[in-house]
Amino acid sequence: MSENERPIVIASRRSRLARVQAEAVGAELERLNPGVDVVYRWIESEGDQQLTAALADSGGKGLFARAIEKALLVNQADVAVHSYKDLPAEITPGLSIVAVPLRADPRDCLIADKSVDSLDDLPEAATVGTASPRRAAQLKRLRPDLEIGLLRGNVETRLRRVLQEHRFHATLLAAAGLSRMGLAEHAHLPLDPAVFLPAASQGALAIQCRTDDELTRARCAGLNHPQTAAAVNAERQVVAALHGDCHSPIAVLGELSDSGRLILRARVLSLDGKQCLESRADDDAAAANTIVERVVADLQEQGSERVLRIR
After folding, report:
1. Between 3.30.450.280, 3.30.1370.10, 3.30.160.40, 1.10.10.10, what CATH number should domain 235-309 receive?
2. Which of 48, 57, 78, 86 is catalytic?
């Protein structure tokens, strides 16, 4: 078998959502590379094994990526497919993000009983389950009366805890994940980003491979959606510049207008939601780095470092 004929081995988590995402990428790779087989290596991540502790206490979102990245580094796989928001801001040495496909809906959705139409409809002191400091802080900012409880697990588990077992009055899930899993009927209460900003790179996928694997890089190049990549990279640069991690209630969204302008909005909150700093900047997308610098400088001048220290 020649080098150009070797299969593409995709590594991904075992969860249903991860498999759906990986298989969608695999199908597109087969289309882009006729005659090349795609095979899958399903891996259980540390994050999937540790469901009783908050991510911030058990090692952060990197728990979902480490085992997958290891498969790349030891040549057990050629490509990793990640939910981009699961990747830490600093990319693992020896690996590169080679493509960011077209982004799905980046918004969060409210999941609650059918009688609830908005956050305002939740009863006084309702319990909302989440493991996200960003979501928890924005919830407390909007509804200080809410009780926040730890809720982790895959999408199906979180839906079941709320809609069937009624352990929580509500939770929040990413619209993109619900759509990709064929659960769009649960995404009927999306939260307006003007009120509730998503996580950096929410709704986007990251296609990762070894930096020195030129064949795989070339095979994956057609997966990239430049506009999505530009917006998502700007979002992640904001988080990195603010020294954010899984402990950090930082929300940021970049959007490209039809005229080619990048609109970047960011929010930094205290964990209790009582303090909230916001910044917005827009310019031609070619000036993305300058836009990021303006937003970061504005947030820092407002005291982002102090706010992020508040626990």
Report:
1. 3.30.160.40
2. 86
